Amino acid sequence: MARHLESQLDFIFFFYGLSFILLGALCLVLARGQDDDRGATIRWIGLFGCVHGANEWLDMLALIAGDGTEFMVVRTVVLIVSFMLLAEAGRKGGETHGLPMPGPWIYIPIFIGLGAIGFVDGLASAKAAARYLLAAPGAVLVAFTAFTGRNDDIRINRPLMVGVTIAFAGYAVAAGMIVEFAPFWPANSFNQETFLRVTGVPIQLVRGLIAVALAALVWAAWGRRVMEKLDYPGYSLHLKRQFIDVLTTLLLVLALGWALTNYLGEIYREGVESEATGDVTLLVSGLERETAIADAMVKALAASPSVQPMLAGREGNRVAELSLLELDAGVIQATRGLIVNRAGDIVGSSDSSDQSWLGMPNLRSVDWFEQSIAGRAVHQIRVDPPQRLRTYLTASPIRDADGEIQGVAMLETSLETLAELMTRFDQAFFVVDARGLVVITNRRDELFRTLWPRPDLPRLQIAEQFGASGRPMLAREIFGGDWVEFGGRRSYVLRQPIDGTQMSLILAIPVKGIFASRLLGIIITLQVAIAALFYFFGMDRGVRDRFERQLREELLIQTEDLARQAATDSLTGLANRMKFDARLNEELSRSLRNARPFSLIIFDIDHFKEVNDIYGHPVGDQVLVRLSRTVDASIRQADLLARWGGEEFAILLPDTDAAAAYETAKKLRLLVAHTIFEHVGTITASFGVAQVLPGDHADTLVARADNALYRAKLNGRNRVELSLPVIEVVELSPTA
User: Fold this and answer.
1) Boundaries of each GGDEF domain copy (predicted)?
2) Which domain does 728 fall in, by range?
């Protein structure tokens, strides 16, 4: 599980960064329009999310394209800046809720201290210290701010704020306490590697999941605020559905993107593994071909009848036998050939310098002699420490006619020419012995160094023998093929034993290509995720505009309805007294301004009280409604019929003089008199007519029309009276 998740670190970094960037964007949107301390805290969190997400993407690029000192410094600085933004969010929140907080000056000594730690102890130590000094306290303070402020904003309910509190508290542990390995406590005891070893899960995945939870909580808070602003049931339902749809879509996009990334990476992985297998087979076969000749020659030498007299010690044949040994050694360009008897004495040598050793039992305890005299074939690649010369030693037991082992034949050939030819190979390869010591390689800096740690083999011993030192390229010994860190770079490492020896050939192929292939999948995933977000939020904007337009239209309708109700008589549907007064003033001003005639008719139903008394008020109301509709249908559209009050009505007649208004009133009187009303039969009405005169205002015009109506009543009802210019109001009073 852990190995698999480690191989997915590039996608985990992508997921981690995307989650924090979404969190940052949502916080900045949520803080928009909030100029108080709460808005400032949310804004700082938003900036932290954006910068920290960008830092995780930089880590992803470092993993894919390879890292360097300058790029590592940049990533460290960006990480520290992001944690400073988080700490500032916590500091602002603490100030808001009354905690004693230092000023922004506190970041100056912290930044200087982190720079000193990075310079003296390395960038990993600076990152760990930044997490301890900035990320952990910042996240804790933000969690405290969210918890203590859970009741401050009624638009964001308490469960959301409690969720934010828990998420930031979890982030304080995941990002502020589980840090990079550093040579000080507690970073050297409890760190990211420890967490991975104990849980099998990279801490980056946990941090990414926390960021997803925070983004979802902040999004929900933003949605509640929008729903509060746009109080429309349909839009609230839309936001809830959109929340589920976006989460589902993003999870689906990430899942499919992860599958695509793995698929593209697997294609490259299979190609790399196939190429590595072919290269290793080629190198091993070339090495085995070179050694096979020596193996065949030493077997032929051991089986030669001419060797037996040497072992028997018959001196007469020594010269011929030595010539045969020298000939065998010369055929394969061996550096040395030996015939050794059962006692370990050298009885024949191809090197004249060995003549002084003849007959001396100096090889009894040599490993290759011990193995060969015991009947086992010997195949060794050896290194001479002083001269750093590499040779291949092969030995075979010499048997008599009865099959008994009588001695050992040994040939040692130089591998320097073969090693020089193999250095021309492109991919990094290493021929290592059983100790992991590199004896042949095309990477000269790694020659005579161990490829993996050997606690049982002190590095000082290797350094003393070969003058080579340095950190091993591998963290552990490799068997078969594996994708591991090799010299600080992710590589595919394949190890294949060399038959008949304790040697192995190791091939290392950097995996820049596989991460480039996976990067294509990540880029496609990012593009689809962005397109999905643009689609959903664009659709939300359209839906919100539609709901806002509907809400405005409904409010407009309600306003117009209220205005109509305020200006309309509830029984007859005609304009009421308020609407009449407003229209009267308008028409009066227009008439006087433009010198156009304007007249007013006031009429009421004769003996209407008797209708109510005899037939009841409901019938009386029916008469009023029928009369209103009859009269309103008989006047011009420009005219306004209004209920004056009770059984009285008024008509405004723009651009109409007194004579025309008088004729209109006469027609209406006849219309009323000839209309049959249900239950009542016929009724009559009396009319008073007045034209606006110079110097008139609303009260005088109404008074003159009302006095004309009063005269019609006095003169017998069911008639029309015209207000004349020479008649004063007081003269038309009933007491005149």
Assistant:
1) 596-725
2) 577-732
In a domain, 87, yes or no: yes
* 626 within 8 A of 685, measured Cβ to Cβ: no
Chain-centroid distance of CA 338 in Å reads: 71
Quote the pLDDT of residue 156: 58
Alpha carbon of residue 516 to chain centroid? 20
User: Are 379 and 448 found together in one domain?
Assistant: no
Cβ atoms of 642 and 650 within 8 Å: the answer is: yes
**Using one digit for the tens of pLDDT, what is the confidence trace for 288-346?**
887 888 888 888 888 888 787 778 765 444 434 445 555 455 555 667 788 888 888 88
DSSP-assigned letter for residue 683: -
Residues 6+ apart with CB under 8 A from 299: 396
Asked if residue 413 and residue 427 are part of one domain, the reply reads no
- Round to whole Å and give the CA distance between 131 and 87: 10
Please return the burial class of 424, using the count of CB atoms within 10 Å of its CB with bins 0-12, 13-18 and 19+.
exposed
d(CA 114, CA 589): 82
pLDDT of the residue at 6: 66
Mean pLDDT of 713-722: 93
pLDDT band (50, 70, 90) for residue 364:
confident
Complete DSSP assignment for 317-343: GHHHHHHHHHHHHHHTTEEEEEEEETT
- The average pLDDT across 213-217 equals 88
Distance CA 156, CA 223 (A): 9
Q: Containing H/E element for 378?
A: strand 378-384
581 three-state secondary structure: helix
| Calpha distance 662→656 (Å, rounded) | 10
Distance (Å, whole) CA 679 – CA 630: 17
CATH number of 26's domain = 1.20.1070
Q: Three-state DSSP class for 682?
A: coil
Q: Which residues lie below 8 Å from residue 497, measured CB to CB, with a gap of 6+? A: 503, 504
Residue 533 resides in a domain: no
Three-state SS sequence of 12-41: HHHHHHHHHHHHHHHHHHHHCCCCCHHHHH
- For residue 458, cis peptide bond before it (omega within 30 degrees of 0): no
Query: In total, how many domains does the chain have?
Result: 4
Q: Are residues 427 and 412 in the same domain?
A: no
Which tokens in the block code for residue 234? Answer: 């349909």
Considering the domain architecture, whether residues 400 and 315 belong to the same structural domain is answered as yes
DSSP letter for each residue of 690-702: EE--TT--HHHHH
pLDDT band at 515 (very low <50, low <70, confident <90, very high): low
Q: What is the pTM of this model?
A: 0.63
pLDDT in tens, 402-460: 888 889 998 888 888 888 888 888 888 899 887 788 888 888 888 888 888 877 655 44
CATH of the domain at 686: 3.30.70.270
The CATH number of the domain holding residue 482 is: 3.30.450.20
Residue predicted with more confidence, 230 or 169: 169
Q: What is the dihedral of CA 354, 356, 361, 367, to 10 degrees?
A: -20
* 439 and 476 in a common domain: yes
Distance between CA 729 and CA 681 in Å, rounded? 35
Q: Whats the size of the chain, residue-wise?
A: 736
Order across the sheet with 504-510: list the strands.
Answer: 438-441, 428-432, 504-510, 489-497, 481-486
Helix (H) or strand (E) holding 222: helix 203-229
Same domain for 398 and 455, yes or no, is no
Tokens 């005269």 correspond to what residue? 711
E strand map for 445-519: 481-486, 489-497, 504-510
Please choose, from the candidates 596, 686, 695, the residue with its C-alpha nearest in 3D space to the C-alpha of residue 644.
Answer: 686
